[in-house]
């Protein structure tokens, strides 16, 4: 941008990222910023890709109107489609406050020389902590004990927690991590603190990592009493864990998925839960979201702990996202190399 001018920024928060937080972070970072806060007033599928945004939608119209004259857009889910980019020739930088700029048409942005950045890792701590919570919930049957036993004035804990039902502790337990990125590496750190025997499979991570055992997927599956998935969903990882893979686990293993539903063949998981090959599953993400009412998972009683895709949602995430995005805007304003730019 031209030195001396004030940069015009639209801070478009929605769902989870607050426009006021973005605006404050950008003003703090840049100083000479004219920030317009925009609370997007339309519901979008929470983590849906841009393909799910209807062309010529109200959302696009709202974006186009708000972006008039702006050079920078900071957004979480606002659709930055071909039409929006064509209608906003002043726009030079788009920063998406999430793990990937899935709501931006990257090809269209490249053609117009618009830089597109994102905010990796903003929810890694939240997701890692939630994962360990889900693991403990499944291993120790915490949700099952909560309501029926105490809230209803009953004290059947002694009979509920028989030897067979009392569950496993993490200390000394072999736990396999599939994926060792921002979330997986944090989960590993916490599990090590519990004394779990942590193994890792990640084809893009080589050599010894932090003293952890790195294995092939099959070896990890054969040895793990618990597996937890932390790969990104790509064509390569879709269906990574199916019937064959679940069959390699020791009988009665536990499966945790706080990553993406389609990493796991849900039908095969239900079969494995029904047969006892898998004794429990803790899931935050599903093949289809929201989970359909006829999902087999809902018929599996207390063998499953199910949460509605909220592993990455903590209060701190909105602030971290705003800060990471604002730092990127600051680099752009100062003409420095951008940290997480895809165009
Ligand atoms: N439930 C929730 O609310 C949230 C879910 N997530 C999901 O958690 C997962 C992990 O996120 P991050 O750690 O931020 O991603 P990341 O990109 O930092 O790490 C992903 C890791 O997966 C590895 N990987 C790639 N192909 C693989 C394969 N074939 N097998 C095993 N590993 C493979 C990569 O090398 C990388 O180390 C993603 O699926 C993400 O979408 C992230 C945040 C919140
Ligand atoms: O990954 C999730 O599930 C989230 O909570 C947010 O996703 P994102 O990293 O913003 O694409």
Automatic annotation (TrEMBL):
Keyword hit for NAD = yes
Query: Which keywords belong to this entry?
Result: NAD, Oxidoreductase
- Enzyme Commission designation: 1.1.1.95
Enumerate the CDD domains for this protein: 2-Hacid_dh_10 (cd12171)
Domain D-isomer specific 2-hydroxyacid dehydrogenase NAD-binding as annotated: residue spans: 132-311
Domain of life where this protein originates: Bacteria
Q: Molecular function (GO) terms listed? A: NAD binding; phosphoglycerate dehydrogenase activity
InterPro entries this protein is in?
Answer: D-2-hydroxyacid_DH, D-isomer_2_OHA_DH_cat_dom, D-isomer_DH_CS, D-isomer_DH_NAD-bd, NAD(P)-bd_dom_sf
Q: Where is the D-isomer specific 2-hydroxyacid dehydrogenase catalytic domain?
A: 53-342
Q: What's this protein's family per the entry? A: Belongs to the D-isomer specific 2-hydroxyacid dehydrogenase family.
Its recorded name reads D-3-phosphoglycerate dehydrogenase
What organism is this sequence from? Streptomyces caelestis
